Amino acid sequence: MPAHNGSVYIEHTFEQPGKFVGLVTVGDKQELVSRFPFSVGETKIPLPPTYFMIAFAGTAVVGVILFVLRGRRKSSDVTVS
């Protein structure tokens, strides 16, 4: 493993996609241990689909409320002669 500027480069070919955990240990007696989870070959969705449905429903409710209020305002503006 060549080291350069405090970095260690390791190459590994993962046979299958999945979730993995990397461990880096520094010191003779495992003084410092760093643990980092990562995934290989998986796409990550930034937000769960549930959030999109909640946002859509909230927007629809606000739209309906504005539509109803607009209709009431127009009907109150009409004067009877």
What is this structure's SSE topology?
Layout: E1 3-4, E2 7-8, E3 18-26, E4 32-40, H1 49-77
Antiparallel strand pairs: 1-2, 3-4
Structure description:
- Helix content is 36%, strand content 27%.
- The chain is of the alpha+beta class and 81 residues long.
- The protein has a domain at 3-40.
- The model has no long low-confidence stretch (mean pLDDT 80).
The mean pLDDT is 80
Strand order of the largest sheet: 1-2
Q: Into which percent range does the helicity of residues fall? A: 25-40%
Strand content: 25-35%
- Terminus-to-terminus distance: 93 Å
Along the chain, the helix and strand elements come as EEEEH
Low-confidence stretches: none
Q: Can you give me a brief rundown of this structure?
A:
The chain is an alpha+beta fold and 81 residues long. The protein has one helix at 49-77; strands spanning 3-4, 7-8, 18-26, 32-40. The protein is rod-shaped and about 80 Å long.
Keyphrases for this structure?
81 residues; alpha+beta; two-stranded antiparallel sheet; two-stranded antiparallel ribbon; 1 helix; 27% strand; rod-shaped
